[in-house]
Specification:
By secondary structure, the protein is α/β, with parallel strands linked by helices. The chain has 9 helices and 19 strands. The chain has a 7-stranded antiparallel β-sheet with strand order 4-3-7-1-2-6-5. Strands 11-10-9-8-12-13 form a 6-stranded parallel β-sheet, with helices on both faces. The protein is globular. The relative contact order is 0.10.
Amino acid sequence: MLDRALARVNHWALDTVAPHWVDYVVSNTMTDFNRWFNGFLWTYELKALVEQVIDEAPGVKTFVLRPNQHWRGFQPGQHVEVFLPIDGETVRRYYSLSGLPNGRFSITVKQAKTGKASGWMHQHLRAGMSLKVGHPQGRFCHQGQAKLLFLCAGSGITPCHSMVSALLVQPEAERPDIQLMAQFRKPSDVIFMQTLQQWAQDGLKVTTALSSLSADEVSLPDVSSRLDARQLKMHCPDLLDRDIYLCGPTGFMNEMIAHLQALDVDLSRVHTERFVLAEPDGASPEGFEAAGAEVFFQHLGARITLTAADQGKTLLQVGLDHGVMLESGCCQGMCGTCKLTVHEGQVSGNSLGKAVYLCTAYPASRNLVLDA
């Protein structure tokens, strides 16, 4: 009863009073009692209240969240770190954001078979509960290109949905040429089905692929079988003219990179995002000697020469040890905060196409050029 009453008060305060005034009042009335009684507003931490839980598809839920006064907004395509209190410990996970009116946002979570975090959220996270969250991160955002293909699978549609939604509210004359291709296992697994149907009715070119069905079994309009090079070329004839935003399970993304390479797509125009832990595969490739190798962080104008002491270090650690101020997040190859693009040279470890995750990747050539 008290929790529900406090939640109503908190919603009223945030919906009625500008966040900077809420912050001013709270910071000037901060006491141990206030922090204990209402730790959602009387806090220096960024937190979010769960307002609603929506069943999107079997095993997929969307959580509508109302952040407190410390929220400063986000760019479509970015993700947020969520801190989950599970079995006496804090488990950190990253989820893409979708913007909602009146300062709300949502995250869409697919329950993994052995997922500790997703399982807890599906079973225990309810409206009225609050969570500690991080500030938005990531550069998987529209970068101003004129022709776009959003290529996604499963819950990887979430950041693409966020970007497309934001682009569609722009004046038509300023809006880029958008195409979306999304793959799911079967019709009941389709996330944001109503939105995809509405976009298609409004004239957006939307292709929904069902990987568990063969081409002969697919009879619905604008629906295809599993995406491959032939499907990509058929549904997107001007593929080579588009910048591609790719997100989905690791296997799907690896397959799409291979298909895009086979179609002669410039991988520097393929922008990627993923939220899975990188599997360790060793350090620098056998025979590679770090001493004397050069790494140029082009976006920062920082060029460093490696020493023998850098042998076996990740690109992130190498850069930080040489005084290069690199961004980082989870340091597990998952959140993408440290992700850069390879322009020249080679890397080993955690990479996808031209994208490299510095925290779990290693230099593999004498000269390496990286950029944002």
